[in-house]
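Reply to dn_fold:

You asked what the input looked like. This is it:
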Amino acid sequence: MTMLIYGLITGILFGFLLQKGRVLRYDKQLGALRLMDMTIVKFMFTTILVSMVGVYLLKDLGLVKLSIKPTILGGVILGGLIFGVGWGLLGYCPGTSAGALGEGRWDALWGILGMLTGAAIYAEVYPTMKQTVLTWGNYGKITLPQVLGINHWFIIPVFVFGGLVLFRWFEKKGL
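and this is what came back:
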């Protein structure tokens, strides 16, 4: 029950940050898809960088155990294509469609219905996909530090520094 409360609190906080970051706005979504407004890219990359530091810090302190999912290229490519087409058609990604609905934008309801329909279809075709698409390019449970054979704290600062340089470049370009 405690984990559900933590999930609810972090979900509300994330939704609040999505709203305050203005990434729920359709013009921001469209700008990201057209590579003309990097607000969403900056928001999500910041989220990834902060999470990367936090998760590995908690792991090193022994407070969490990571559950690495297998890297399966077939599933990643097919899922990415479906995600991209859905985002391009609707103008919202899954998280922002829920946030947009919370702001009263009823058009986002179509995206949520599409996600639920997609989940139902996936559940039906999963047995077939398990034998086909989900076997293509299966590299198992790997991480970048494992592939490079170095400690994760050598990689994390590189990503953080790279992110800061990228953010600065976006700002110089007015993106």
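The CA atoms of residues 84 and 93 lie 8 Å apart.
Hope that clears it up.
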